Amino acid sequence: MIIGVPKEIKNNENRVALTPAGAAELVKRGHEVYVQATAGMGSGFTDEEYVSAGAQMLPTIEDVYGKAEMIIKVKEPIEPEYELIREGQLLYTYFHFASSEALTNAMLRNKSVCLAYETVELPDRSLPLLVPMSEVAGRMSAQEGAKYLEKTYGGRGMLLGGVPGVHPAKVLIIGGGIVGTEAAKMAAGLGADVTIMDVSLKRMRYLDDIMPANVKTMMSNEFNIRQMVQDHDLIIGAVLIPGAKAPNLITRDMLKTMKPGTVLVDVAIDQGGCIETTHPTTHDEPTFVIDDVIHYSVANMPGAVPRTSTLALTNATLPHAIDLAEKGWKQACREDNSLKKGLNVVDGKVVYKGVAEAFGLTYYDVDSIL
Ligand SMILES: NC(=O)c1ccc[n+]([C@@H]2O[C@H](COP(=O)([O-])OP(=O)(O)OC[C@H]3O[C@@H](n4cnc5c(N)ncnc54)[C@H](O)[C@@H]3O)[C@@H](O)[C@H]2O)c1
Fold this sequence. Notes:
There is one protein chain. The protein has 2 domains: 183 residues, NAD(P)-binding Rossmann-like Domain (Rossmann fold, 3-Layer(aba) Sandwich); 174 residues, Rossmann fold (3-Layer(aba) Sandwich). 34% of the residues lie in helices and 16% in strands. The radius of gyration is 22 Å and the shape is globular. Helix 6 packs across helix 7. Helix 1 links the parallel strand 1 and strand 2. With 370 residues, the chain is of the alpha/beta class. It binds nicotinamide-adenine-dinucleotide (NAD). Nicotinamide-adenine-dinucleotide binds next to helix 6, helix 7 and strand 8. InterPro entries: Ala_DH, Ala_DH/PNT_CS2, AlaDH/PNT_CS1, AlaDH/PNT_N, AlaDH/PNT_NAD(H)-bd, NAD(P)-bd_dom_sf. This is Alanine dehydrogenase.
């Protein structure tokens, strides 16, 4: 198959969809890989590394779209890319269709085959191509929290782990899923006194088994949260209710009860946030202060560490890319139910229920097009 990797053109997107190692895997199997010049730069991969791996470099994005049967990307195509996509072309990338009617309509019009990372789903309902970014954001939340606890950043002037003779900082993590677990590991590793709150007893039993002794669990409810926020130094919001806006678990009135310089990191901000006073921020201006409490709520945290994020993402996406290249999308999806769930828009038809419902469009059963 002829595979194309364009350079991401969305603002501040430094990830790339294929590493030189991934290119080498595809080339080894007899596929042609075309990479747009400097596509890997933001993640620290040079054009020479791709060429050594057997890929061919193309100077412009038009060349890459013009040549490829399958485009592998990171972010959804944006407007200048719409007209470059042609009928029958396979696009394998994050789409998040339900949040953009313009994108959905554009992909319906050009009759491409859109396989979305975010809806590839395993039988246990987990989303294997979203997990790596949650892992990155979770680990980063503890790191950013530690930074903003420093006095120069406006925090309480505390070291997460304390020192001998001085108590460590107290970290509260609300939501013990992927993000919360990774945040807890990092904070606990630095010696903090960590509590994870969740509503799932089953999850907390598991966390209690695997976490070190400086991590405790506690049932998440308003009473407990109200009490806990008063003496915690770093509070990380990491809840998810699939398909719904995150609930406001920390309300405005609770800020007044926190210690000045407390740091709130609302990782769930991409789902609306679980702290009433947060709003999405960017890496250029990640924080703001309300009632002496620092709020960090960057909606695309993995964007700050594109090299780690690219490697994490491509570890998860490459096996499917190989399958798609070897078998073609129809056969690959017929053989793999999880991958089939990634099909959203195909040949001018919406084949993913959530997308059809979001915009009142006709829904076609995915099996009818395979
Ligand atoms: N800002 C970013 O850059 C970024 C990056 C990746 C993920 N995220 C977001 O982080 C959030 C968490 O993602 P995840 O992958 O860890 O999800 P997950 O499904 O693995 O975990 C969510 C956890 O929240 C728990 N939960 C639900 N309601 C709760 C409540 N009321 N109180 C306490 N816990 C509750 C669930 O039981 C579950 O354990 C999501 O909103 C996700 O979109 C943000």
